[in-house]
Amino acid sequence: MLDQDKRTGEVVPWLATRWTYQDEGKTLVLRLRDGVTFSNGERFDAASVKANFDALAVYAREGRAPQASGYLTGYLGADVLDPLTVALRFDHPKAGFLQALTEKTLAPLAPATLAKTPEERCQGALIGTGPFVIAQVVKNDRIVLKRRADYQWASPNAEHQGPAWLDQVTFQTVSEGSVRVGSLISRQVGAIEEIPTEDVQRVKAAGASVVARSAGGIGITLYPNIASPVLSHPEVRQALVIGVNRAEIIEALYTEYDKAATSVVSTTVPGYFDLSAKLAYRPDAARALLERAGWKAGKDGIRSRDGQRLQVGVTWSFPGYTPTLELIKEQLARIGVDLRLNLRSDAEIGGVIRSGNYDLRLSDLTRPDPDVILAAFSSKFGRGLGAAEPALDALLDQQSVAVDPARRKDLVAQVQNLIIDQGYAVPIKESNTVFAVAPDVRGLWLSTPRWPVLHDTWLAAAR
Fold first, then answer.
1. I need a labelling partner for 384 at 20 to 30 A (CA). Which of 174, 218, 433, 454 fits?
2. This prediction's pTM
3. Do 413 and 385 belong to one domain?
4. Are residues 161 and 85 part of one domain?
5. Is the dihedral of CA 34, 37, 38, 43 positive or negative?
6. Which of 214, 431, 163, 239 is nearest to 321 (CA)?
7. Half-sphere exposure (CA, 13 Å, Cβ side) for 82?
8. Which one has a higher pLDDT value, 43 or 381?
9. Cβ within 8 Å of residue 191, ≥6 positions away
10. C-alpha dihedral over 7, 8, 10, 12, to 10 degrees?
11. 168 and 284 both lie in a single domain
12. Number of domain units in the chain
């Protein structure tokens, strides 16, 4: 219902034209845009907004909407104040909820869709307020969208306010990277995502342009389990932070469109605080930390203390991260750490994390709001650090209820500094979205989270 400015990340009006906090931030009153309809003709109004949130809250309680559950913690209900004004009530202030209203998870659905089961919706029975409608869904193959001719309420980020320029868009599933590249070069498709690193220059040489953006959130990061015997020692965690050479990783494995991490969150998250100095590669300082903590180098270079080798396991499930971790293994060996690689399947990794039987885990998390740190690190939200860290939990809670922007910004800076100072994260690189776009495709841009926006896209040959 809201959007984020694609340049600054600031929350801006869209389907809700203005908002106010009441009851010390526990109630959010939204004034809705007049004249908006769902694509089946049903009216977008306060009653439909209430129906959407009430339905989502039920699914959240049942465990059927995990992402919405995080956004709707403390939701008490919604009140229709008039046809275009709705009040959302919570049991505590929700500083990050305005940004949550920009997320697709909370996008309003037509009353006719709310009457469908989740299973029916997954087959494509979705009716929204956007510039396209779903025309066809073929599982594991394609999704076809068609233009909505009467669309007149685009985001302020858009380049125009009328209907989309394209008549139809087909999202085609092509799992093999080389096939995607070949399809683009031969003009069988107009754009592709996830370009293999080795093919970037080939794509550009063929006349395609590249559209890239850092994903708002936490990039590729190593999270320590501070309850594990070896990583319960802050010196070891701190040595890992400065023992990783991020610049070498980017140069060796990634492209000009990738960025090394410079903080806990990416540069596109409001409240980002530059900690590049604290993340600088300092292998000598890392070795000194380990020496002072009693970890002495052996003949093979790997350190040990009291007969225990400095072995640290890392668990992850996405095979695409393997080359990155193999290089990190080489880097950490230079400071005397033996990194053991434990690739698990998607089905296995959740159980491993829940069991606590790991040292490090590697993942990323997308959400362009400081509450992404709350979701990733708080002991209240599952994975966290493997054990509660009261000082960090307290700061995370304070920022999450700080509806004053200046106060929240200060708290978020404190959080980021604390995480790096204590070695509660080893940020590696910013996650990003990269599209290669055919020469005749114009106007495709990426939103603040990372998603392609097609409302302004057009074909040069068609205009």
1. 433
2. 0.91
3. yes
4. no
5. positive
6. 431
7. 6
8. 43
9. 184, 435, 436, 437, 438, 441, 444, 452
10. -30
11. no
12. 3
